[in-house]
Amino acid sequence: MKHTVALKQNHEFRRLYKKGKSAVSPYFVLYCRKTGRPVSRLGITASVRLGNAVQRNRARRRIRELYRTHEEELRPGYDVVIVARTRVIYSRYAELERSFRQLVKKLGLVRNAEEPSC
């Protein structure tokens, strides 16, 4: 992930949950908030309710890959948190990708055609 760093602090996650915009799909919930930074920050959450450690890690890997493949299309300078839901484990990657693109578009994170990529 070229233009993204990890979001790790608990207080940053909580601030995003309270003050950020959100969009929901059956597979995940996406929270975002504009920051003044030149890079975006990504946090991924997979609850214990999702399943055992193997399933949670698989969900995180799939979400991270979704973000990585679409990172060039996204605007920089946002904090993004993606919360995995149970269906993310059992669904096809193409369904996850379609849902991710819809949520990103809904939140206005998609870069315009005339905007240069960094």
Walkthrough of the structure:
- By secondary structure, this protein is an alpha/beta fold.
- The chain has helices spanning 10-19, 53-70, 87-90, 93-106, and strands at residues 4-6, 21-24, 28-34, 40-45, 78-84.
- Strands 1-4-5-3-2 form a five-stranded mixed beta sheet, with helices on both faces.
- The longest helix is centred in the middle third of the chain and has 18 residues, at 53-70.
pLDDT below 50 for ≥5 consecutive residues: which ranges? none
What's the arrangement of strands in the largest beta sheet? 1-4-5-3-2
Determine and state the CATH class: Alpha Beta
Specify the biggest β-sheet. 5 strands, mixed
CATH architecture: 2-Layer Sandwich
Q: How helix-rich are the residues, as a percent range? A: 25-40%
Span from first to last CA?
A: 13 Å
**DSSP helix count?**
4
Element-by-element helix/strand order:
EHEEEHEHH
CATH topology, anyone? Ribosomal Protein S5, domain 2
Note the beta-strand portion: 15-25%
What labels describe this entry?
single chain, 118 residues, alpha/beta, Ribosomal Protein S5, domain 2, five-stranded mixed beta sheet, 4 helices, 5 strands, globular
Question: What is the fold's blueprint, element by element?
Answer:
Elements: E1 4-6, H1 10-19, E2 21-24, E3 28-34, E4 40-45, H2 53-70, E5 78-84, H3 87-90, H4 93-106
Parallel strand pairs: 1-4, 4-5
Antiparallel strand pairs: 2-3, 3-5
Helix pairs in contact: 2-4
